[in-house]
Amino acid sequence: MSRRFTFLLALLLIAIGLSIFTVPAFADHGEGSKDDQEQIPFNDLSGPSRAVEVIEISGLLDPVLTGMMIDTLSNIDPTETLAIVFQVNSTGAVVSDKALIDLADHILDAPVPISFWIGPSGSRATGPMAQLVGLGDDVGISPGARFGAMGDSIFPPNSNYQPFDLPVDTDLITETVGFNEALERELARQSPVLPDHLFGIDGFEVVIDETVDPPTVEPITQTRFKKLDIIKQFFHTVASPAVAYLLLIVGLGLLVFEFFTAGVGIAGVLGAGCFLFSTYGLYVLPTRWWGILLLVLAFLSYSIDIQAGVPRTWTAIGTISLLFGSLFLFDGTPLSWITLVVGIVGAFAGMAAGMPSMVRTRFSSPTIGREWMIGEMGEAIEPLSPNGLVKVREAVWRATTNRATPIEVGEPIRVAGIDGLWLEVEPEEGAAKDYRDRSKNK
């Protein structure tokens, strides 16, 4: 048991150590470069007109997304770029107000028009994103989309930043508006789909083909989509509350599973990987440290009863810790009920029911008491010097023997004692006397 504990402790320390170096690399939003982003042409029509760049902003505004937005705005070439269009579907931010103000400054100081499209249908722009949208030169909205509920201002009092030029006591601080109301209040223009939004940008050139019925509109101005590269997209995904939470639950669960199985397998590697990546998300998101401790306590509590073989008091303690740790893990960014059900029910089913059954089945232990095994014969399936694996009644067990009597593969063994899930074994002949005496005294 101590060897496995040492191994898992080492895995955790490696994961934590790697996260210390990983987090700063992706948390600093000011170090991106233009080459870090993929540019995909929307059409291949080239001409004298400048291009429009479209950047999709989806999910919470984290260091990765704000970094891409700032990098895009910092590297605008007015001779090549007609306008920047941010396609937004974002309901919150997990970066500091300072970073958001920096982004707002770049929006206001941009040398070309900055346009926001809240779309497609079902998209939302609330919280800090709604405040940033209100600073744009042009806003379009799709039917079924909504924006508003800006919340507390991210800008200092008496500043020149005023979204949509609305009064400070606007109802958009707490309420959202949809397609029709946004048009009536002249907060946004009608943009059912992205091409419609692009056609409404000043200077965007199109050609109308009237030879067909109905006439068609073809763009002349070139449009490019810019998106995160695969690595940054991965870390942006990890920084979402649902993914970070589930990675933590899966990581802890797999590490416990590996702890109670013979040998070092893929479960331990995957568990350490999930734990590692969850640390980045937990670092970026507004996480309560005591929520993490409750989740760790939950799995430690489950482990105690898994060792015993049946759910008891510690399982109840673990379940309560799991429930409260899940509900209060994040501050201000609550998890959806679907995510909570998946995490809580999955962890409880795996730890309270699945793991004890697996351990009993894995080690052919129909009851908690296994004294009947003392005296049973078997054979070593790997060298014991002093630890290794043996087979008793066609079941594989972790075993230890006296250092004075190492056992080779294939040699017969006798069970001399039981220590938890470990068997204390001795050679069929020539066992060390002190070892046999110690076993009899147990």
CA-based shape: elongated
CATH class category of the largest domain: Alpha Beta
Under CATH, the topology of the largest domain can be stated as: 2-enoyl-CoA Hydratase, Chain A, domain 1
The strand order across the widest sheet is 1-12-2-3-4-6-9
Total number of β-strand segments?
17
What does this 3D model show about the protein?
- With 442 residues, this protein is an alpha/beta fold.
- The chain has three domains: 2-22 and 240-362, no CATH class; 32-230, Alpha-Beta Complex (2-enoyl-CoA Hydratase, Chain A, domain 1), CATH 3.90.226; 373-440, Nucleic acid-binding proteins (OB fold (Dihydrolipoamide Acetyltransferase, E2P), Beta Barrel), CATH 2.40.50.140.
- 42% of the residues lie in helices and 19% in strands.
- It has 13 helices and 17 strands.
- The chain has helices at residues 2-27, 63-74, 97-109, 128-133, 179-184, 194-199, 230-238, 241-259, 266-284, 289-308, 313-327, 337-362, 433-440, and strands spanning 37-41, 51-58, 81-89, 114-118, 124-126, 138-141, 146-148, 176-177, 189-190, 206-209, 216-219, 223-228, 377-380, 387-392, 395-400, 412-419, 422-427.
- The strands form four sheets. Strands 1-12-2-3-4-6-9 form a seven-stranded mixed β-sheet. A five-stranded mixed barrel has the order 13-14-15-17-16.
- The chain is elongated and about 95 Å long.
Question: What order do the helices and strands come in, and which of them pair?
Answer:
Blueprint: H1 2-27, E1 37-41, E2 51-58, H2 63-74, E3 81-89, H3 97-109, E4 114-118, E5 124-126, H4 128-133, E6 138-141, E7 146-148, E8 176-177, H5 179-184, E9 189-190, H6 194-199, E10 206-209, E11 216-219, E12 223-228, H7 230-238, H8 241-259, H9 266-284, H10 289-308, H11 313-327, H12 337-362, E13 377-380, E14 387-392, E15 395-400, E16 412-419, E17 422-427, H13 433-440
Parallel strand pairs: 2-3, 2-12, 3-4, 4-6, 5-7, 6-9, 15-17
Antiparallel strand pairs: 1-12, 7-8, 10-11, 13-14, 13-16, 14-15, 16-17
Helix pairs in contact: 1-9, 2-3, 8-9, 8-10, 8-12, 10-11, 10-12, 11-12
